[in-house]
Amino acid sequence: MRKRKHAVADGGVDRRNLTAGEEEDSLCGSLKCGIFGSPRRIFLFCLLFRAVNALLIQTYFNPDEHWQSLEVAHRIVFGYGHLTWEWQRGIRSYLHPMVFVVFYKVIAWKGLDTPFFMIKAPRLLQSVFSALGDLYLYKLSDALYGEKVAKWTLFCQLTNWFVFFCLNRTFSNCLETVLTIVSLYYWPCFRDSSRDNAFSRKWGLVIAALACAVRPTSAIIWLYVGTLELILSHDKLKFVILEVIPIGSFILGLTCLLDRLMYGSWIIVPLNFLKFNFLSSGGDYYGTHPWHWYFTQGFLVMLFTFTPFSIAGMIKSKNRKLSALVLWVLALYSVLGHKEFRFVLPVLPIALIFSGYALAEIEASVSLTSSQKPIPQRKQIKWSRKLKLSILFLLITNVPMALYMTLVHQRGTEDVMNFLSREAHKGSVKSILFLMPCHSTPYYSTLHKNIPMYFLDCTPGEEKGILDESDRFLVDPSGFASELARNWSEPSHIVLFSSEESKLGDFLVGHSYKEIKRFFHAHFKVDRDHQASVVVYRKSD
After folding, report:
1. Bridge partner list, 494
2. Which residues pair with 176 in a beta bridge?
3. pLDDT at position 334, please?
């Protein structure tokens, strides 16, 4: 049986030779010396924390949060919603939206599909998954290094600004992250599993296969993990023939069957996804970054001030397998031209395990040097100045960042749809035109009213160099709007960013539109001209 190495003191509990039930009891017992009484209490605490976290999210991050999950589910359940071009080309699976299909069905059945509930409920649902991920990150850290590291890992997970900002959103990446954490807990190649290795590994394989079904690029993670397990396993043929192939085929078959029912024809989404994103570099249409972006900017921004602690933890823990997993994922994603923060979200909690290790090392060094006498198990250990400063440093850098990004930065596009949803349900909104870059706001899943809406298309063209509607509008807002007005049925409301408002002043006045509402959006530009606010114009009678 594999032995756990480099463990920080975990309260004197040796779990290497325990049965599955005994391990859970010992885990519960070891936690009683902390502020939580059991894994159940940890989960409930994390659930409460993530629920508050979900309710605090007021900002817009990326279109996929709404357009690739909620919008699809809304169309299935309520009969109206927009399917983006990805669904026309079969590069998205219906597996992730189905989570919200079931949720929307329950909401509709209970008559709870009010504007407020439709806005808040999906992220509250995601908070349940997030709390489960928090719990299993704790359990994984405990299995690797003991309860003290697990305690600090949970602290890092709950206080990291990007986890707070992103994990409760309805991206497929967020569910992928949770599944990744849970699956890693069951893989024998990473932890000292007291359960039967084959049983534990099968659970890990099932959850890993689901992660790949939710998001095919998750295969990058499991290619590394599977190869490592194959190298370390004594039953290599059994692992491949009796576990990997049957479980992988079963999950792939179920996913293909679901997509067959929803698409109306046989679609192999992972193959289409691979062709578009890797073989044809289709994702580059939405922008590219230099190869080193994740190493020099992207992942460092996500880790933020936890970076030095994570690096220190990697060095001190000497866990090359887990460290190499983080580097492997960052390296392979660096090959792709199109890069986004959320693509590498699944390895952020893993990096935070090393931050937890570093903090536990600081605490342990104080415990060893402060007194030669045994410390009672329930006695509060006095924190050193170094540990207090470390915690203070992490809190004063991450908490304000988390709150600003969650409550302030780019909130206008969420606020405007919340406003229009309330107005539409009052009957004062008949139709809406969004004169702004495509997918800048949520859509029918937030409005929840079947009225005509139009946004500027940005579907990748077959020929390069041809501008789509969104780009043509940004090049010449006034000219594009005038051309559009020749064949339109005048909308009752027009929504646009303040950066284009001055260029469309004459057009709006000429067509009898007047400003009725303005929403703050951002203090600084992100990737375009400064979109300081979102403005709503209404057609005068």
Report:
1. 433, 537
2. none
3. 94
| pLDDT score of 193 more than 80 | no
Rounded Cα gap, residues 36 and 174, in angstroms: 26
Structural domain spans, the chain: 20-360+381-407, 412-539
Give residue 416's Cα distance to chain centre: 23
Looking at the DSSP bridge assignments, the partners of residue 194 are none
Residues 327, 330, 331, 332, CA torsion sign: positive
CA dist 9 and 342 (Å) reads 34
In sequence order, the β-bridge partners of residue 453 are 432
Question: 285 pLDDT band (50/70/90 cuts)?
Answer: low
Q: Cα 56 vs. chain centroid, distance in angstroms?
A: 16
Q: Which residue has the tokens 């024998």?
A: 188
Q: Cα separation of 366 and 528, whole Å?
A: 50
Please tell me the least confidently modeled range out of 5-14, 81-90, 133-142, 323-332: 5-14
> Tokens in use for 142?
């405990």
Q: At what angle do helices 115-145 and 39-56 cross, to 10 degrees?
A: 140
What are the DSSP calls for 407-465, one per residue?
HTTT-HHHHHHHHHHHHHHHT----EEEESSTT-S--HHHH-S---EEE---PPPSSTT
Q: What is the pLDDT of residues 373-418, one digit of tens each?
A: 554 544 455 678 899 999 999 999 999 999 999 999 999 999 999 9
Looking at residue 35, its pLDDT comes to: 52
Structure tokens at 201: 């590994």
Block residue for tokens 């946004």:
455
Quick one: pLDDT at residue 460?
A: 82
